[in-house]
Design brief:
47% of the residues lie in helices and 15% in strands. It is α+β, with helices and mostly antiparallel strands. 42% of the residues are buried.
Length: 176
């Protein structure tokens, strides 16, 4: 019985250490545009349909003016799909990848690029690859309003930095 208790304590300590490593791995994130960084921001009320429409219109405009064929997904603060658009001739993989980027940004409370950067850094960052259902690619952003996360936007179909440019245009427009 004592050995079982000792084993349980060791496993609990390892689980806590692993959670700490993930948090430490993701902590060096560039400051957000708002006064409060996304990783410390609370989840707020869900994005409204009007806010999502503004975000989608701005994202589509940014993609169209650059001739980037992308798919865009907008989730509310509870992780529910609010809006999705796929531009004509966007690659089919962009559909699921855009949702993955939005979901990653929402659940981790930070741009999906932060996970990509942590993995690229190697070492402890590689542990993120063990997590299920993450999309550690640039192009997913939390949507902030009054210091709270009201949703997330994910864009896929162009190169990652271009996806991020489109997502930023959408996220900025939603908070107006």
């Amino acid at each position: 019985m004592t050995r079982m208790f000792a084993l349980a304590c060791v496993l609990a300590a390892l689980a806590l250490a692993a959670g700490s490593v993930v948090a430490q791995t993701l902590s060096p994130v560039a400051p957000a545009a708002s006064a409060q960084q996304p990783e410390t921001a609370p989840y707020g009320p869900p994005i409204t349909l009007d806010q999502a429409k503004r975000a989608m219109a701005a994202a589509e405009l940014e993609a169209a003016k650059n001739s980037w064929r992308v798919a865009t997904t907008i989730l509310d603060s509870g992780g529910n799909l609010v809006m999705f658009h796929k531009m004509d001739n966007a690659q089919l993989s962009a559909i699921t990848v855009s949702e993955g980027k939005a979901r990653t940004a929402l659940t981790f409370k930070r741009p999906s690029k932060a996970l990509s950067d942590a993995i690229a850094g190697g070492g402890a960052g590689w542990r993120l690859l063990a997590l299920k259902n993450i999309t550690p690619l640039e192009g997913g952003l939390p949507i902030m309003l009054d210091g709270k996360i009201i949703g997330a936007i994910g864009v896929s179909g162009a190169i990652s930095s271009q996806d991020a440019q489109v997502a930023k245009a959408g996220a900025d427009a939603a908070g107006m």
